[in-house]
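Case study 2.
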Amino acid sequence: MAYSRYYTSTSSTGSGGISHNISNPDNSNFSWLGDDHIKIYISTAGSTLAAFKSAYEAGTVSLFSPSDGYVLSGTTLTFSGLTASSGYQILIKRETPKLHHVVDFQAGAPITELGLDNSNKYTLFRAQELDDDISEN
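Prediction:
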């Protein structure tokens, strides 16, 4: 089971675009605390899932950044500038920062539900990511 990452296969449109709604089949509650916590890896056009997984595990797949041609809006990823009408493999991976807590409780400041929820999610997400890292090795 992959709590913090998943692979998906899709095809680009005739204009080289892809729209994908982020939804992890192994973790129906898949979410993240900040958009910079989502890492996107995409195959070359026509790559098989097995070949893409092997390339990722070998460290030869580069991180795909917004400047490479995607937009994340809510849970919808939109890619542009890809090879038209081609099959692609995508790895969507959550990486919660290890050294930066998203909630910094301060003496005398009110404790909010949102702060408590985000503090709990931070711990949950880090544990899920660690479990996935251990399962991969």
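The radius of gyration is 17 Å.
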